[in-house]
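New to this. Please check this fold:
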Amino acid sequence: MPSAPAATASSRPVPDPERGRLVVVGCGFQPSRHASQRSISEIARAEVVFALTDAFALDWIARHNRNLHDLSRFYADDRDRRASYRDMQQAIVDEVRAGRRVCVVFYGHPGVFAQVGRKALAQARTDGFETAMEPGISAEACLYADLDLDPGEHGLQSLEATQLLIEKRNIDPSALLLLWQIAQTGNLACTGFDARAEWLELLVDKLSRWYPRDHEVILYQAATLPIQDFRADRIGLVELPGARISSATTLVVPPYGRPEPDRAVLERLRTLG
């Protein structure tokens, strides 16, 4: 009977569903305030911790578990972020396949604009490993608190900025609109992290289909430190291309106008008593 081939350093580890485990957690935007007790417990109990967050949060995570790996090492300004995300996912899944308890920590909510964690969970589940996700306080949750906005008052539309720009979407201006990742508006190459005025001008043109160009919008950023204030700069829509925008900036477009009542449905409701 022929012998099995010798293992090599590049060989894929044999999955061990009885041992390997993947948990993806969110630490919010201020981990010392926002992280849940379960998230902290999962970080502390893990054999390997990966994280994609800022330096202050990394320091906080390291106090709970020293075996910490910073996923930002896979980024580069001239590299397609989709390739970076694939490498992050592979690094995570390889540790799970090696039979280790792995915890991955993302800022905010780990299931919101965090495809690396979700895809790693899907792959681990396909391989037969135990998986779980623990929610965190998202930028959206912070936004409602900081700006005193209730999505139930006028309704809510929430889109990634490039989605709105390149897709045929019907916006209801009478409802609150949140546009995420506006620094990456129009960045089809997925390289670099800086906003470009000419791309933002295209976004202004698109939004002017539904809003006046002088409509007041809000540039929002959640605070990441207890000593910080959140950012809420109010500008006219037309000023967006020249505004200071970072990778953490969200565009908040308050409602414009009022929805038209559906009189036919109202009349039917009245007849039903």
